[in-house]
Amino acid sequence: MPNWSKGSLRIRGKGADIVKFITEGICNSQNYIENKDTYFSFYTEKDNPLYINKSDRCFVEHAYVYIEQSDMENTKSVALASCASAWNWELKDIMEICNTYHIDVAITAYEQGQEFRQDIMVVYNNGTPKVLKNHYTEFDDYNWECESPCLGG
């Protein structure tokens, strides 16, 4: 049974690209989508994690995304979600997600059992994902040094 690395997942990109990631990149997301003439929304409950395609056991645990139709093409929108991954997040998976959906991805996750924090930021720039941050911090005293010691499992 894995330890769970938990934290926040931030997605940035054109509204249409975020919608594509949600509809194609998150399994069973259709059950949580409301797509109207004027807006797109995606809401999930924490009790029902949804698998992220192209990842190695990574999930969206809770999310609320709201994008106006007028923001679909020209605006950089940001989507926030709680997330979890078995053990840790793989950089190669994040880069593939960025490349496939033309989005930027930032993750900050904590794992209490192995006592580490992982910070990843990958941006999609001119057709190529670029790693801006890939830090793995281990703690000597997780409960004292870590800013969110109750996250992770």
| Average pLDDT score | 92
The coarse silhouette is globular
Helix content: 10-25%
Task: Summarize the main sheet.
Answer: 9 strands, antiparallel
Structural class: alpha+beta
Task: Flag low-confidence runs.
Answer: none
Distance between the termini: 11 Å
Element order, helices and strands?
Answer: EHEEEEEHEEEH
Number of strands: 9
Strand content: over 45%
At a glance:
The protein has helices spanning 15-25, 91-101, 142-145, and strands at residues 4-14, 33-35, 39-44, 50-51, 58-68, 76-86, 104-111, 116-125, 128-138.
Description:
By secondary structure, the protein is of the alpha+beta class. Strands 1, 2, 3, 4, 5, 6, 7, 8 and 9 form a 9-stranded antiparallel β-sheet that branches. Strand 7 and strand 8 form a beta hairpin. The protein is globular. The relative contact order is 0.23.
SSE layout and pairings?
Blueprint (H helix, E strand, L loop, with lengths): L3 E11 H11 L7 E3 L3 E6 L5 E2 L6 E11 L7 E11 L4 H11 L2 E8 L4 E10 L2 E11 L3 H4 L8
Antiparallel strand pairs: 1-6, 1-7, 2-3, 3-5, 4-5, 5-6, 7-8, 8-9
Descriptors for this entry?
3 helices; 17% helix; single chain; alpha+beta; 48% strand; 153 residues
